[in-house]
Amino acid sequence: GVARWRLGGPARARGWGRSGAPVGMSGFAALAAATREARRRGATALLGRVTSPSARALSCSGAARDASDASSFVDVEKAQERARLKAAALAAQSAAESGAMHVFDRAVKAAHRDRAAYLRRHDPSGDRTDPFLEEITKRTLDRLNDVKRAFENVLVLGGATDAVLRRLLEDRPDVRVVVVVDASRDMLAFVRENAQRDFGADRLASRESETPTTSKSSSVDVFEDADIASHTLRNAKGKEVRVHYARFDEENLPARDGAFDVVVSALGLHWANDLPGAMAAARASLKPDGLFLSSILGGETLREMRIACAVAEMETEGGVSQRVSPLAQVRDCGNLLTRAGMKLPAVDVDTLTVQYPSPAKLVEHLRSMAETNAAVSRRPGAVRRTTAAAAAACYAHMFPAADAERGDAVECTFQVLYMTGWSPGGNQPLPLERGSAELSLAKLEEELAKVPPGKGPRTES
Asked: Methyltransferase type domain: from which residue to which, for each copy (predicted)?
């Protein structure tokens, strides 16, 4: 969970430095002083020498600037600056501290999302939607209906981007601009294809838009690195909605401060290494009194698979390795919202039990959702055939589906944590100051005790 996000390696022993050359105590003192100085200055002194590989891989520096379009919401330079600052801060720390926040391999996770886009695009049934992602997206966005306010500018962060965009276009006539951010170019292309097919002006425009363009004179905005063109769609009410696509890591948002009315992330942020930082960046992109809405997988997710894999590995290999990525716990979500600067934080939980025909079908579904293991500490290489067969047998024996027609059908638990928070604003309700109450609960209890039985207020059934 979040309590285990900070995974530090062993401290360097015997006075060996980063370069492999031995250093004395004065060298460690100098390193500590340099670290404190870099933190104090925001690591600005190192920006010219440190460039994040993820920033180079995910940059969109060639974005076309339309006067009234993507540049109003997307700030590429700011995202690159954030990535450089993070890289500089890590470079100024010791080896143990440098690996402290590196829990997930983001490059592997981007590859997982590329694979998921391919699998869903070439699904034999021809259905590109995922029932589970659609259901979680519905439950997440249902919270928007509780707020009697228009949300014109929306930022969508990773996860079930396809389902989120589709539901916004179907159910939210107030939406005018949507910016979709994802670390996977293939997933962005997949989302754009589906949106153009379902909500494009006509099929001819849909076919023409499938050809990528890099011309800066084009009428649409183009992020040249991602090669995904912006386009104008029509929602279910026939109103125009402008949709932009940006290939960026969710931890280094390209959003301008105060540009969005709501930030939505359905099943995306639980793969962030710096989850508090990603949430703080999302809060900064919100207008005053803007809404942050997120759903992530919780620590009870795939508990059956954890147990089955552990039993199988212990039996066949004599040890246990990490086969499922660490996830957040319920108790940490409120602290995450508060640490990110959110006001009026709220957290609630759904625990869903899903049935699968076999353990193999469960693994296939996880792959199509890009929810397979991406932990840095995962065991390299593929699972042995004997271990995989033993894990499947253990799973089917220990966690059979209660009302399944087939004997090898299994159940799987998904715990979904919903987080809601608001950016600071002047019109928000504020809690009363501590000690301002005029009647204590103890006094209220004493007064209620004086009421004779049967004389109190009645409730009609």
From this structure: 227-293
